[in-house]
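Note to self: user wants both folds in one dump. Writing first protein now.
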Amino acid sequence: MWVFGYGSLIWKVDFPIKRRVPGYITGFQRRFWQGSTDHRGVPGDPGRVVTLVPASNKDRVYGIAYEIHEQDAETVRQHLDHREKGGYTTVKVTFHPCDQSEDVDLVLYIGTEDNPNYLGPAPLDDIANQIYRSVGPSGKNIEYLLNLANAVRTELPGVEDSHLFDLESKVLELQQSPS
């Protein structure tokens, strides 16, 4: 079993893995368009976390693929189904390792626009304000954004993600400005 991490699974792996491989998938873009009412927000005041939205086949989303030991596969699947319960479903995609080793077909969790927590696009300033003020059972939404931006820079050096890094800049500006 292989799983692709493009959000918190890049920096918060809380299950046993056999190995981790940096790389990318095509045909999607990473966007903060998924509402979080169970981790980074609450019902009635959701935070925003990433999902993947369809894009051209030239678009790439970089992340980390995790190979799961066969004996752990069912336990990890159940754990991820619970962790990603807030509107996510599974999709099978082809993963391309950065080291150009053999491609792998794997599973990823995606919040599609037909799920009840999907928030969709909004002006970047609005998304930044929502992330800045949202808090849920797993902590501040801003921590999710900053951890993800840091992990992408650290784990995937040289990868550009304008949506992620522009949001990071806007939220850091909000932190600096007096309320």
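First done. Writing the second protein, which came from a different request thread.
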Amino acid sequence: MGEGPGLDQPPEGLDSGYRFSTHQYNHFHLQSPRVHVWDLVCQQRGLNKITSTCFFIGVLVGAVVYGYLSDRFGRRRLLLVAYVSSLVLGLMSAASINYIMFVVTRTLTGSALAGFTIIVLPLELEWLDVEHRTVAGVISTVFWSGGVLLLALVGYLIRSWRWLLLAATLPCVPGIISIWWVPESARWLLTQGRVEEAKKYLLSCAKLNGRPVGEGSLSQEALNNVVTMERALQRPSYLDLFRTSQLRHISLCCMMVWFGVNFSYYGLTLDVSGLGLNVYQTQLLFGAVELPSKIMVYFLVRRLGRRLTEAGMLLGAALTFGTSLLVSLETKSWITALVVVGKAFSEAAFTTAYLFTSELYPTVLRQTGLGLTALMGRLGASLAPLAALLDGVWLLLPKVAYGGIALVAACTALLLPETKKAQLPETIQDVERKSTQEEDV
């Protein structure tokens, strides 16, 4: 890692989407002692896409594993495991001595990182009332965009890919320390019959909010009644999402929407070639465009509703892919503009999907439904890098695939019921009853 700027960067696709020209490759080949291991250009460029796909497969597996384990052993404990695993595996990735080690550690890192998205959101929602869930959800995603912007700056200042991975991994350390102040979900504790622990957290929460609660309202008898209700509803099955007609309809549509959102989103994010910008400028631009996208979502879902916003954003992403087919590859500025606009639409669709899906499923199956749709979304993310290899058949075929799937997802979103002013359903019967009422109208 002392061979000069750029020589320690990974070949194309291993991290941040680096692209090498023939001259740059020859320069890398002559001066880097690791090129016999990292020779991933020209005929072996497919290995670059496989690296990204393996990472997303890790995310997919991690979503299933951490979702199950967090329900069994608690959100807080598994969140700590996710942080520690991400730190250790990130350090191992930075110290990789060959391509195989890098792929394995990045795949396992993807599994650990999935723990954040699977655990943090339910833990957050389980401490919030229904009124504040939408605002909190949008605010949470803003921090993601802030991280994207910060990564662009860090990547520009640190050109060595090993040191860059190290810098991107070290923030896990304060995350691990912060677990000390993160409360376990009182709702989960009650489902496990751990009444005294739940009571302690609830009293602390009330004190923090300046609303002291009398011991009577949190008496052992009252909490035991909640435990009885929770236990009657615990251990939902994924099969329950398909047992009734309306839930089956919602589940199948949401699965297609989430697949399309992720497939088009990561298709745009991973395809940084052809832009008139370097990788740092592209990362910065993509991060900057996410912020107004989230603000746009906040206002659109309140005025137009969730269904039209989701369908409209996916349609916008599909149209940008379609328009890019008509633009000459020589016009860098137009290509850049279209990719940025498409990224804005895809990010807005991504944010809306989280809000929309959580309102469609009943309380008794809300987390199960989110887990299923997130699984399909990660499947779309896993296939997105491989779709880029279709350019070997026809140069424009990847864009046709990304745009076509986004269009199908947009049409599917229109088949879902609107939840703009609807009260959140609590049971499966509520969902079926609402469907019957709409049919009668």
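Dump finished. Worth passing along: The chain has three domains: 1-182, 186-233, 239-441.
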